[in-house]
């Protein structure tokens, strides 16, 4: 069995790996590179493999950096199936459609090239097959007797996310996808990593740091929002449309409606993708954790509460400007590299009364990373805008597990070998060192590596 690291090998985005075993050539995820123009230009590089030769594609979850280039596989001649959990299949369509809408806008306005067409997205969806957690499926070769067994287990990262176990030739290989944080609202905990793993390919996004605890997390959110609204300004929350937004709404519901620790106030969910994703969440309540399921059964809609307004259209979004503060605006994109948050940022970054609350990883080169690093002024939609608002970061709201979570998850199973991807170099090195201290052989993955087991 041979594994080639194609994407997310030198950084966090663009996840893609190739597994070769017998007659099988299996792609695990095929996501978009996200960041500055130089990073995103990698999306247009030719695929380093013949898409027509790929036999199967397996997908861990629906984030753009894991599914964004699935249509490129179809465009380049891949004719097989795409396997993912049922929620992932539906969420992936929303994500791919949203990304294409942005590409189409940039193409018409700025002449930027299109990565693929809507027909390629349709090709992905026509050949997507939903799978269940913990129920192995058998991937078959064309007419041959050889097989690969694939199993999806709950990763606790976003709705429907999974780590994937591939078994063939007497070997067991695991691809973590993205490993979820601890005690995440709505989602169940990350399933245990199986024993007797010959090779684990693990993410390492926060391999060098620790998050706040759940209690501290909610206190921080409460304090930051209370402080921001007390000044009479706007609390801007750039949020990833899948999971982070839904978790934040869940937390605000708890703080406002159940615990009454925050007063009701105008809160706007200004993200068509996040609004559409709520429909998928409501469709699959069997994926909720016990707490969310309990609220649901009691008649409590965990995604709706007093003061929350969803603004789907641009016209509805523009009306937010006419609502006086204090108010909260939750809008995509989470790294401020596009989406409606840019319009709010252009308006309110220079307002000393306002607050920018960052709640997820900020990739180098993105506007979110620039602001978090202290840059001012910054360029927003063609304008130079001074950053005078307060800027805060809450790591515990991340959908990724921190160093402690990754060490516990990996350490409990003692895999024979670990390769770390989906992390900045210093994060991979820090986590590899910590794993080595507990007797687990680990090293950073790279695009130059071809691993054989």
Set out the fold topology:
Elements: E1 2-7, E2 16-21, E3 24-30, H1 37-40, E4 56-58, H2 64-67, H3 70-75, E5 82-85, H4 86-110, H5 118-126, E6 128-131, E7 137-140, E8 147-154, E9 162-168, E10 171-175, E11 199-203, H6 214-230, E12 234-238, H7 244-258, E13 267-270, H8 272-283, H9 290-297, E14 308-310, H10 314-319, E15 327-331, H11 341-348, E16 355-358, H12 367-372, E17 378-380, E18 383-385, E19 390-393, H13 403-411, E20 418-421, H14 425-437, E21 442-444, E22 450-452
Describe this structure in words.
The chain is an alpha/beta fold and 453 residues long. It has 2 domains: 2-209 and 399-452, Metallo-beta-lactamase, Chain A; 214-397, Rossmann fold. It is 31% helix and 22% strand. A 7-stranded mixed sheet has the order 6-5-4-3-2-1-22. The protein is globular. The model has no long low-confidence stretch (mean pLDDT 93).
Précis, in short:
With 453 residues, the chain is an alpha/beta fold. The protein has two domains: 2-209 and 399-452, Ribonuclease Z/Hydroxyacylglutathione hydrolase-like (Metallo-beta-lactamase, Chain A); 214-397, Rossmann fold (3-Layer(aba) Sandwich), CATH 3.40.50.10890. The protein has helices at 37-40, 64-67, 70-75, 86-110, 118-126, 214-230, 244-258, 272-283, 290-297, 314-319, 341-348, 367-372, 403-411, 425-437, and strands at residues 2-7, 16-21, 24-30, 56-58, 82-85, 128-131, 137-140, 147-154, 162-168, 171-175, 199-203, 234-238, 267-270, 308-310, 327-331, 355-358, 378-380, 383-385, 390-393, 418-421, 442-444, 450-452.
């Amino acid at each position: 069995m041979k594994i080639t690291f194609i994407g997310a090998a030198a950084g966090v985005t663009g996840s893609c790996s190739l597994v070769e075993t017998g007659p099988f050539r299996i792609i695990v995820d095929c996501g978009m590179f996200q960041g500055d123009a130089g990073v995103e230009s990698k999306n247009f590089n030719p695929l380093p493999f013949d898409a027509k030769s790929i036999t199967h594609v397996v997908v861990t979850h629906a984030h753009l950096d894991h599914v964004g280039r699935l249509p490129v596989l179809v465009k380049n001649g891949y004719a097989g199936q795409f396997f993912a959990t049922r929620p992932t299949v539906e969420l992936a369509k929303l994500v791919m459609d949203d990304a294409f809408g942005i590409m189409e806008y940039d193409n018409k306005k700025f002449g930027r090239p299109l990565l693929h067409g809507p027909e390629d997205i349709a090709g992905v969806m026509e050949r997507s097959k939903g799978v269940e957690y913990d129920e192995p499926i058998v991937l078959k070769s064309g007419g041959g007797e050889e097989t690969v067994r694939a199993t999806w287990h709950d990763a606790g990262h976003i709705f429907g996310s999974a780590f994937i176990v591939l078994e063939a030739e007497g070997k067991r290989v695991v691809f973590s996808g993205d490993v979820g944080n601890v005690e995440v609202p709505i989602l169940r905990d990350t399933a245990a990593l199986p024993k007797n793993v010959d090779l684990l390919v693990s993410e390492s996004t926060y391999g060098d740091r620790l998050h706040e605890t759940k209690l501290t997390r909610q206190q921080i959110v409460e304090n930051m929002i209370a402080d921001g609204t007390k000044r009479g300004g706007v609390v801007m929350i750039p949020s990833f449309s899948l999971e982070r937004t839904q978790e934040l709404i869940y937390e605000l519901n708890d703080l406002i409606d159940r615990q009454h620790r925050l007063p009701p106030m105008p809160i706007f969910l200004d993200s068509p993708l996040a609004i559409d994703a709520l429909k998928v969440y409501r469709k699959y309540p069997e994926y909720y954790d016990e707490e969310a399921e309990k609220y649901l059964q009691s008649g409590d809609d965990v995604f709706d509460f007093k003061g929350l307004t969803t603004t789907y259209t641009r016209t509805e979004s523009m009306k937010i400007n006419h609502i006086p503060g204090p108010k909260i605006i939750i809008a995509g994109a989470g790294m401020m590299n596009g989406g409606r948050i840019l319009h709010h940022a252009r308006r309110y970054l220079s307002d000393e009364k306002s607050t920018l609350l960052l709640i997820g990883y900020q990739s180098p080169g993105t506007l979110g990373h620039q602001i978090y690093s202290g840059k001012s002024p910054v360029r927003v939609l063609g304008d130079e805008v001074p950053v005078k608002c307060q800027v805060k970061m809450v790591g515990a709201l991340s959908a990724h597990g921190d160093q402690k979570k990754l060490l516990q998850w990996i350490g409990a199973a003692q895999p024979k070998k670990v390769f770390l991807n989906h992390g900045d170099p210093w994060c991979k090195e820090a986590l590899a060192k910590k794993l080595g201290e507990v007797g687990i052989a680990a090293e950073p993955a790279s695009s130059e590596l071809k691993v054989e087991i």
